[in-house]
Fold this protein.
Amino acid sequence: MLLKGRRTADPHAITEGVIWKQLLAFFFPILLGTFFQQLYNTADAIIVGKFVSKQALAAVGGGTGTLINLIVGFFVGLSSGATVILSQFYGARNNEGVSRAVHTAIAMAICGGLMLTVIGLTASPIILHWMSTPDDVLDLAILYTRIYFCGTVASLIYNIGAGLLRAIGDSRRPLYFLIASCLINIVLDIIFVVGFEMGVAGAALATILSQASNAALVIITLLRSQEPLKLHFRKIRLHFDLLPRIIRIGLPAGFQSVMYSLSNLIIAAAINTFGTDMVAGYTAYSKLDGLFWMMINAFGVSITTFVGQNFGARKMDRVHKSVRVCLLMATAATLALSGTLLIAGRPLLRLFANEEIVIENGLMVQRFLVPFFVTYVCIEVFSGTMRGAGESLRPMLMTLFGICILRVIWVKLIAPIQAGSFLFMLTCYPLSWIITSLLFVAYYLSGRWLIRCKRKAGFD
């Protein structure tokens, strides 16, 4: 790729320096950002669980959250192709490429958000019915999701815009935006749910208004940025010469997100058959389990950006070393968090529910799944590494088999052998983590992914 102009030393460049320090400096703002994003979602669950009912708690979590992740996750995954390309352009000092990637990504956010609004409003009632959502939860769940999907343009603009900032190594400003919107969400939750007694509608309205504030902050930041990251409204359009590259990287990532969500949707449908108390217990657990996912996802984003910039700069030694360092840090952090959740499980679950049966159900799930978190580390680190270098298809295929197909087979064909056993059904999670991890380890060590990426990038 031809260089379009040299830049002076850039504080966001991560192609030089001590790898572990740079990974940590990049990781912690992302971790704190995802913490506030989780708190952002958890605030709804805490407030409606404490001040409304367990039915309201089940409505804003569980299968509802999985449905939202299913639809929104595809478009966020698709647009991730633009952020990977941007990070490679940035590492290669291709200013023109960076600018075109920025404007294409924002155009994708607007178009995708409008499509999501239509899809969410029309399809969510059908899917929630199919998921066997309990009758006393169904109407609340439909109301929550329909209001939520009215704000998906803002949600995508924030997620994609924050991804663009992180792609150049700027993980601090997305953190500040999330902190601000999280505080707005909590205040609005209290006003709408507790003060105005609007129930789940108030929680959903608080969410989309806080997302709108997030989107506004991202747009303002891009408008005020220096070239080549600067956003110009008149330049927002789809650059069709970039789209094939974006789709080649982003489409598998989008499908991968869909497959995770589809398998979880099938599991959520099975969970719904165990009744409202179990759904509420699992929802409470899932809010704590979200602490792990936000942490491991932060490692995934960190290694993707780190590899993207260094791959673009053709520094393969830093690519390989960063993977080893990231694996070590992610494993240590996972073990520490798992121990904390197991020790403090009961008081943490009390944040989300008052009924003892709900707390006991959540505690049962937590004690079963948390010890297996460490088996997921390799999936996130290796898949992030490959995405950063431009390889998305084969990681998606491994995820298709290891995560989606195995889980569906387990839930539909094997779990019914012990019908009524909630934990036996949940065995599909650790089983899929272990098998998929082994697939990723074998593929990474083979080195074929890097050969393909170098060839596609035109490396000598």
